[in-house]
Amino acid sequence: MSKTALLTGATGYIGSWICRYLLESGYTVRATVRNKSNTARYAHLEALAQGLPGKLEIWETDLLKAGSYDAAAQGCDYVFHVASPFLLKFKDAQKELIDPALQGTRNVLEATTRSGTVQRVVLTSSVAAIYGDNRDMQAQGLDAFDETHWNNSSSLTHQEYSYSKTLAERAAWEIANAQQQWSLVTINPAFVFGPPLGDASDSGSMDFLNQFLSGKYFGAVPAIRFGFVDVREVAMAHLRAAELPQASGRYILCNKVLSTLEMGKLIGQNGGKPWLMPFLKAPKALIAPLGPLFGVSKAFILNNADYPLAFDNSRSIRDLGIQYRDFEATVREMVERVKG
C-alpha cells in the first residue's frame, strides 16, 4: 500500500532530492509551495515525477500562517519538514531567518498533531544547532561534536542562521515531547554540497560555491574549517529516518571537514579555475577587521579561524546505514552542474 508524505521545502536544494527519492519509492508526495501559480518553481519536480512509481501533488501553503498545513497533513503517514531559509546574505535576521524557521516549524508540527494520521516527522535541522562557532569545540574540551551537544553561543546578532536553526529544533522537540501521536527524528547536516536538481539559486550552498568560482576568495583567506556532506546522503538519511523503526533522536550528517584553502584547492582541481582560488592563509588578526568585505563579521572570523573542527557521524552510519561517497566526486559533480 502506497504511503503519503507531506514535504515542505520540496522545491529547494535538499527538498528536491528528498522528493525524488520518495517518488522513486512509490510515495504520494504532497509538495508544498508558497505560490502554486508560479509553476516554473516546481516544474523540475513535475518532470522528475514522470515515469516514477510515486505520485506528485502540489499544495499551496504559507510557513507563517497558522492552519495553513492542516489540509495537506490530513491522511499523511510521514511529514518531512525541510522548509527553512539558508541565507548567507540578509537584511533583517528576525524577519528573514528567525520567524520562518521558528513559526514555520510550529505551524507544520501543530498541523501534524491535528492530522491524527502522521506516525513520524523528520525535521531538517543542521549542525548549526549543534555548535555556533568553531572555538566552541575547544572551549568545551571536546575532540568532536556529537548529537548530545547544543549550540549555546549564537544569538540574534551573532551567527544568526545558526541561532534560527537552534530555536527551530528546540521548539520541535518541545512540541514532539508534548504529544504521543508521532515521533520526531532530526537530521543535522553539515554544509551541504553536491549537484542540485533545480536551479537552487536561493541556496547558501550555491552562493558559497559561486563565490569561489567567481574569484572572490582569490589570494589570502582566513583558515576557517567547515564540515561538508553530499546532498544525496542528506536526502537518503531523511527517508531512512522516517522508515526505520530504530531511528530516533538526532543525526549528524558529515563526510569531510575542510578549510577554506582546502575547499578552494578541491574546487580548482575539479572544474573550477585554479588561478581564481585562494592560495595563502591570512592571519586572522589582520583579516578580521575586513570581515564585512567578505560578508561576515569580525567576530565570526575571530571565533572560527584557526580553530579545529570535528564531528562524530557514527550514528548516521550505524542506525541509518549511510555510506559516505568520495567527496571529491561530490565537488566535481556540483561544479559541473552549476557551470552547465
User: In what order do the strands lie side by side in the largest sheet?
Assistant: 3-2-1-4-5-6-10
Identify the CATH class.
Alpha Beta
Q: What is the structural class?
A: alpha/beta
Total count of strands: 12
List strands and helices in order, with pairings.
Blueprint lengths: L3 E5 L4 H12 L3 E6 L9 H7 L5 E6 L9 H4 L4 E4 L11 H23 L4 E5 L10 H5 L20 H18 L5 E7 L1 E3 L10 H10 L5 E3 L3 E6 H13 L5 E5 L2 E4 H10 L8 E4 L2 H4 L10 H7 L9 H7 L6 H13 L1
Parallel strand pairs: 1-2, 1-4, 2-3, 4-5, 5-6, 6-10, 7-9, 8-12
Antiparallel strand pairs: 9-11
Helix pairs in contact: 1-8, 4-6
Task: Give descriptors for this structure.
340 residues; alpha/beta; Rossmann fold; three-stranded mixed sheet
Structural commentary:
The chain is an alpha/beta fold. It has one domain: NAD(P)-binding Rossmann-like Domain (Rossmann fold), CATH 3.40.50. The protein contains 13 helices and twelve strands. The chain has helices spanning 13-24, 43-49, 70-73, 93-115, 135-139, 160-177, 204-213, 231-243, 260-269, 284-287, 298-304, 314-320, 327-339, and strands at 4-8, 28-33, 55-60, 78-81, 120-124, 183-189, 191-193, 219-221, 225-230, 249-253, 256-259, 278-281. Strand 1, helix 1 and strand 2 (28-33) form a beta-alpha-beta unit.
What is the gist of this entry?
This protein is an alpha/beta fold. The chain contains 13 helices and 12 strands.
